[in-house]
Design goal:
heterodimer, A: 372 residues, 2 domains, eight-stranded mixed beta sheet, four-stranded mixed beta sheet, 14 strands, B: 364 residues, Amino acid/polyamine transporter I, 14 helices, 0% strand, globular
Chain lengths: 372, 364
C-alpha cells in the first residue's frame, strides 16, 4: 500500500513541474517602441505599424551580433494585429510589457477615429505600461524610428532618454498615455511633444495640439515654453532678451503660477506667474553695471515684459488660431465652479475665444553670479 | 493538538479587517465614482457608518444570551424550523459571496498574471488551497488573519507612498455636488462593500474576553473605512474622475501609473498580485469555514470538516455560471446585494428584537 502511494506521488510530481509553459527571455521579442502611420491603401489596413525591438544578442559584454535593433513594418488594421501579422515572419512572439515610446505620424493624427482606436487599444491592454511616452512627428513615424541617432545605438532609447532625463526642459512637455487621456477628458485638448528628424538625428521640440483626438496644429519651442510656465512645469530654463545695448541672459530656477477665475457674465482669467532666478550673463564693462538695485529692478521689468509677451502670444494663438483650451480653463472651471461649468460646457468652443486673460508676471533676480 | 478554540480580541480585529477587505476593494472606487462622481467618499463613509449600529446590535445580542453560540441562541429565540430557513438563506449568501469573490479573483489573476491558464484551474486551485484552512477551527483561522492583517495594511501604505509623487490633488474637486437619488444608491454600494462584517455572529461567542469585543470590532470597521477612503482618494487623484470611471479595477491598475525617480520600480503588478492572493485568501478561508459550520448545523452533524469539500463543487459551478464579468455584475452581484441586505441587516435585527422581547417576558 505504502509503496503504491509512493509510486503515485513520484508519478504525480512529473505532472507538477512548473515550467511546462515557460518562455525563455531570448525567445521573446521585447517591443520597445511602436510608430503608427496612415496607410494610404484602400481597405481595412489603415495603419502602417512600425515595431522596434532590441537585438538581445547584441546587448551586454559578450555580444555576438552587431545590429543593435530591428525594425519591422506592417500594414495592418489595428495596432496589435500588426504583431500577429508579423509573427509569420518572426521566429518568436512579441512581448509588449516593456514598450516605452509610441510615435504617431502626422497624417494619421489628423484622423480622429483612427487615433481613438489606437489609444483605446493601448489603454485597454493589460500588459502595456500606461506610462509610455506618446509623441507626434510632423513626418512619418517610421522614419524617426529608422534613423540612426548619433551617440546612442537605439533611436527609441534616445527619444526616451531625452524625454525622461530632461524633465526640467520647457522646450517640450513629456506626455504619458494616461496623462494624454486625462487631459482630453477634462479639456478636450492635450499637447504631445513633437519629434522631428533633422539629418540623421532626432530632436524633440515644441508640441502638437490634439483636440478631440485629432491633430489641429503645432506649437514651437517658445510657445511651448510659455505654456509650460503657465502650467507650472518649468524647473530650469534660460531666457535671453535684448536689453539696452546687450543681451540679457536670465536663468530661471523656480517658477510658480496660479490661476484664478472670476465670473460675472464674462469669464475673466487671472494668471499670476512668479519666477525666480539669477543673472547668467550680460555685458562686460569697466564700470560696475549690474550691481545696483535700480538696474536690477529695471532688468526684472524687462524680463517680465518679455515673458508676458510670450505668454500672451501663445494664449492668443490658442484662442484665435486653434480655439483650443490649452491652459486648462475648462478643467479649472469644472473643478472649482461646477455649477457654472455645467451650464456652459456644451458651448465651450464658442465661449473660449472670448475669455479675457489678465497676465501678471513677477520676476526676481536673486543673484548676479560671481561678478558685480 | 490542544485546541481551546477561543480567539483574543486582537485576533477579532484582524479577522474583521481581513474578512471585510476582499475583492470589492479593487472595483469599489470605480463603481462608486460612476454613481456619485467625486463625492464617492461620502458613500464609502456613510456605508461604513451604517454598519456600526448593526455591529452594536449583534454584540448586544450575545450579551443578552451569554455563553450561547449563534445556533443555540437562534433555536431559543425562534422556532427551530424558521431558524433553519434563516440558516439556509445565510448559507446561500455565504456561498454567493464565495463564488463572486473567487470568480473575480480568477479574472483578475488571468488578466494580469496567468493569461494562458484556464480560469477553471485558477478557481479550483484557489478553492482547494482555501479548503485546507477552512477545515480547521476558528482559532487557526484567527491566527491566519493576524498574519494577513499587517500585509493588508502594508499594501495600502505602500500604495499610498508610491503614488504620492504624482498625485494631482485638484482632481478631488468638485466636492459636495450630489443629488439625493445618487446619494442613496451610492450609500448602498458603499454598504455592500462592507458585507462580511456579520461574521461576528458566528465568532463573537468564541471570544476570550467578552467585555472588549465591541470596541475591537468597531476599531476593525474603522480601519476598513480608512482603507477604502485612502484607496478611493489615491485612485481619484491619480486618474481624475473620467478615467477612474473607465477603469474596471482601478486599485490594481494604479500601480501601472507610478513613476518614481530613477525608474527602477516599474511594472509592479506582479508584486501587487502576490499580495492580492493573500488578501483574497483572508476572505475566502474564513467564509468557506463558516459555510461548513452553518451547513453542519443545518444537517445536525457534529463536525464541519467533512462538509467543506462537498461545498466546493457548488461554489465552483456558481462561479462559472456567468459568461463574463458583466454577467457577474448583472446576475450574481445583484442577487448577492439583495440577499446581503437580509443577512447583514435584517437577520441580526430580527434576532435582537425578538430576543429582547423574550428576555423581558421572562423577567416579568
Amino acid at each position: 500500500m505504502k509503496k503504491a502511494l509512493l509510486i503515485l506521488i513520484i508519478l504525480f510530481s512529473f505532472l507538477l513541474t512548473a515550467c511546462w509553459d515557460m518562455a525563455e527571455i531570448n525567445q521573446r521579442l521585447f517591443v520597445s517602441s511602436i510608430g503608427v502611420d496612415l496607410n494610404e491603401a484602400n481597405g481595412m489596413n489603415k495603419y502602417l505599424v512600425t515595431y522596434v525591438y532590441p537585438n538581445i544578442n547584441a546587448i551586454g559584454k559578450n555580444a555576438t551580433e552587431d545590429k543593435k535593433k530591428f525594425t519591422i513594418e506592417t500594414a495592418s488594421s489595428s495596432l496589435f494585429q500588426a504583431g500577429r501579422k508579423s509573427s509569420t515572419r518572426e521566429e518568436f512572439p512579441f512581448y509588449y510589457k516593456h514598450l516605452k515610446v509610441f510615435i504617431i505620424g502626422d497624417e494619421l493624427a489628423k484622423d480622429s477615429k483612427l487615433i481613438r482606436q489606437v489609444i483605446d487599444e493601448l489603454n485597454r491592454d493589460t500588459k502595456i505600461n500606461k506610462k509610455i511616452q506618446i509623441l507626434v512627428t510632423e513626418g512619418k513615424a517610421k522614419d524617426i524610428l529608422d534613423s540612426k541617432a548619433s551617440h546612442v545605438p537605439i533611436t527609441d532609447e534616445t527619444i526616451y532618454n531625452i524625454l525622461i532625463d530632461n524633465k526640467s526642459a520647457a522646450r517640450f512637455t513629456p506626455q504619458t498615455l494616461t496623462g494624454m487621456i486625462k487631459e482630453l477628458d477634462f479639456n478636450n485638448v492635450a499637447i504631445l511633444p513633437k519629434v522631428d528628424k533633422i539629418g540623421d538625428r532626432v530632436t524633440i521640440a515644441g508640441a502638437a495640439i490634439i483636440k478631440d483626438y485629432k491633430l489641429i496644429g503645432y506649437l514651437n519651442e517658445i510657445e511651448n515654453r510659455a505654456l509650460a510656465f503657465i502650467k507650472n512645469k518649468v524647473k530650469l530654463e534660460l531666457i535671453d532678451l535684448e536689453y539696452e545695448d546687450g543681451l540679457l541672459s536670465y536663468n530661471i530656477t523656480d517658477n510658480k503660477s496660479s490661476k484664478s477665475v472670476t465670473i460675472d457674465g464674462d469669464i475673466n482669467v487671472n494668471i499670476k506667474l512668479k519666477v525666480e532666478g539669477y543673472l547668467q550673463g550680460y555685458i562686460i564693462s569697466k564700470d560696475i553695471n549690474v550691481y545696483n538695485n535700480s538696474v536690477l529692478v529695471d532688468m526684472e521689468r524687462a524680463i517680465e515684459n518679455q515673458l508676458k509677451k510670450e505668454i500672451e502670444h501663445t494664449i492668443n494663438l490658442s484662442q484665435e488660431k486653434y480655439n483650443a483650451d490649452l491652459v486648462g480653463i475648462g478643467e479649472y472651471l469644472s473643478k472649482y465652479y461646477p455649477k457654472e461649468w455645467n451650464k456652459i460646457k456644451g458651448k465651450w468652443d464658442q465661449i473660449y475665444p472670448d475669455i479675457k486673460f489678465n497676465i501678471i508676471v513677477e520676476a526676481n533676480i536673486r543673484r548676479t553670479g560671481l561678478t558685480k | 493538538m490542544d485546541s481551546k478554540n477561543k480567539i483574543s480580541n486582537g485576533q477579532l480585529k484582524a479577522l474583521m479587517v481581513t474578512i471585510v477587505v476582499g475583492v470589492g476593494i479593487l472595483s469599489l472606487p470605480s463603481d462608486i465614482a460612476v454613481i456619485m462622481d467625486n463625492d464617492g467618499w461620502i458613500g464609502i463613509l456613510l456605508g461604513g457608518l451604517i454598519t456600526i449600529p448593526f455591529i452594536i446590535i449583534i454584540d448586544r445580542l450575545f450579551k443578552l444570551y451569554p455563553n450561547k453560540n449563534f445556533f443555540q441562541l437562534g433555536k431559543e429565540i425562534l422556532n427551530p424550523i424558521i431558524f433553519k430557513i434563516i440558516l439556509v438563506i445565510f448559507l446561500f449568501y455565504i456561498m454567493l459571496l464565495l463564488s463572486i469573490s473567487v470568480r473575480i479573483f480568477a479574472d483578475v489573476i488571468k488578466a494580469y498574471l496567468l493569461e494562458t491558464t484556464p480560469i477553471e484551474i485558477i478557481i479550483i486551485t484557489m478553492l482547494l488551497s482555501v479548503s485546507y484552512m477552512a477545515r480547521s477551527q476558528i482559532e487557526v483561522i484567527a491566527r491566519m488573519a493576524v498574519i494577513i492583517y499587517p500585509i493588508i495594511l502594508g499594501f495600502i501604505i505602500f500604495l499610498l507612498i508610491i503614488n504620492i509623487p504624482n498625485m494631482d490633488l485638484t482632481n478631488i474637486y468638485p466636492v459636495f455636488q450630489l443629488n439625493y437619488k445618487a446619494l442613496l444608491k451610492g450609500v448602498l454600494i458603499g454598504l455592500f462593500s462592507y458585507a462580511g462584517y456579520e461574521f461576528i455572529l458566528l465568532v463573537l461567542p468564541m471570544a476570550e474576553n467578552h467585555k472588549g469585543t465591541l470596541k475591537y470590532c468597531l476599531n476593525g470597521i474603522f480601519i476598513v473605512i480608512a482603507i477604502y477612503l485612502i484607496v478611493f482618494f489615491i485612485t481619484l487623484s491619480q486618474y481624475g474622475i473620467h478615467q477612474l470611471k473607465r477603469e474596471i479595477w482601478p486599485t490594481i491598475a494604479i500601480v501601472k501609473e507610478i513613476d518614481l525617480p530613477g525608474y527602477f520600480l516599474e511594472n509592479l503588478d506582479g508584486i501587487i498580485m502576490a499580495i492580492w492572493v493573500m488578501v483574497i485568501y483572508g476572505t475566502l478561508g474564513p467564509f468557506l469555514h463558516f459555510s461548513g459550520v452553518v451547513l453542519s448545523d443545518i444537517l445536525n452533524t457534529k463536525e464541519h470538516q467533512y462538509l467543506i469539500l462537498p461545498i466546493i463543487p457548488i461554489i465552483y459551478i456558481i462561479s462559472l455560471y456567468p459568461k463574463n464579468l458583466v454577467q457577474v455584475e448583472k446576475i450574481l452581484v445583484k442577487i448577492f446585494n439583495y440577499i446581503s441586505i437580509v443577512s447583514i441587516m435584517i437577520i441580526p435585527t430580527i434576532l435582537f428584537v425578538l430576543g429582547l422581547v423574550k428576555k423581558r417576558r421572562e423577567n416579568q
